[in-house]
Amino acid sequence: MSNITKSGGDDAEFAKPLYTPIKRRSFFMYAGATAGATALLLSGCDDDDNNNSMDPGTVSLGSGDVGVLNYAYALEQLEAAFYAQVKATPAADFSAVEKDYFTQVAAHEAIHRDFFKAAINRDAPGKIIQDLTPVFTGVDFTKRASVLATAKTFEDLGVAAYNGAGKYLKTAAYLVVAGKIVSVEARHAAYVRDLIANGSFADDSIIDAATGLDKAMEPVDVISAAQPFIQQKIDASSVGK
Amino acid sequence: MNILRIIEQLSEVDADVLGRFDSRRTVFKTLGNTAKMGALAAAPAFVASLFQKAYGQTTSTSVIDVLNYALTLELLEEDFYKKMVAAGQVPAGAPQGAINLILKHESAHVKLLTDTVTALKGTPKTGVKFKSSAFPADYATQLAYAQALEDTGVRAYKGQAGNLIGAMAGTTSLLQVALQIHSVEARHAAHIRTMRMQAPWIPAADSNLPAPLGPVYTGATREDNVMQAGVDVTKLGAGYSANDAAAAFDEILTMAEVTDSSRAGGLIQ
After folding, report:
1. Domain residues for A111?
2. Which CATH architecture describes the domain B63-220+241-266?
3. A205 vs A124, A153, A183, A193, B189, CA distance in Å?
4. Nearest CA in chain A to B107
5. Chain B residues closer than 8 Å to A50 by CB
6. Is the ipTM of this complex over 0.90?
7. Is residue A109 part of a domain?
8. What is the pLDDT of residue B7?
């Protein structure tokens, strides 16, 4: 990845490897000193972190921060593939402005995908998920209405996904980057919704009327909604854990 | 309850986990005492307080300060849209529908944040008004100010997310609530921008606009920025235009930048 420049300053935190072995030794030093006392606490523990065997074809997003990053990467792969198709074979009934805007949206999503790929490969080598194969058989790319309906689903889902996963990130720098992306997804969502029905950018079907809050969804629920559009089986059960 | 394993697992994703605790010695001394007293039942509560300390407030900016800062902006927005409705220049139909919907959300955010600050035993900010002398006479300029306020809101919430990591009120993640408001502000911003015949996202050129808009898109990290986490976005894949690279990410504004007189700070009565 010669095109990635190493960072300093504000981005130093981001550049830190996710799995740093430091401090383990000193930690066990203290642990040893209080072994007698802590044995009491340990007695109630169970060993339940063995990975369950999964279908060989299942893609696990992983755990911890890298699990959240892989989760975002999976969704961005899906969105990028969708808009690449929209751009390549634009619906006949798209206006010139709409075609131009969807070309820009396609670029944004491809950038998000490529950014996560670069960041995960840099910060957590060997932990990135494979390239996913999109399934768009239910989408009629020749029809504006079909494209917009699918785009609305993806964008609202993307916003809810980032809103629900932010709390699982432990590294502040990753949270900031996720925040920089989610608001752009929300802009896409508003744009697509307004194309379907002007004024629906944030209507009561998506924003809670009493609290004024957008949706937030847990990773397993988001993946369950996105699964029909992805050939590989995705396992999000350990994301953020 | 296996504190050692929890800490070990945390250390895998957060190398600084032990540094977050007041002092390792104190932590394990307390753990030892707890065990000696046989107060095992108290252990979960102790561990909870330990983690609250470590992750609850990791910065000097307290959670209530962040919430009151968000509340200040929501009050400012709410009052601006009230003034806009009262001025009576919003065209009937779709424009009125949009402004009324946005006002409804800002009022809901004000209530939610006020209630949250109160529940956390803080004193909620009140009485923030949009400066009457700055309120524009014509509808087109009112919309430009609305865009400035919404895009500022998006940048302001983003700037505080890190200060809410781990912050909980009851069983609610305050970070998640902030994110759920943040994306609504982004939807508002996108719609207001299209009402002004602008792209729903922020092109690089916006960083060079005259006030009131231009300053909203500048700051330590301008909206035409193409570097993300040390990655030059224009050089990813087969390469992207500087404008697409800038528009694909919204940037943050710090609290000091938002409250600066050239931005939202200058619009408060």
Report:
1. 3-235
2. Up-down Bundle (1.20)
3. 38, 12, 19, 11, 18
4. A212
5. none
6. no
7. yes
8. 54
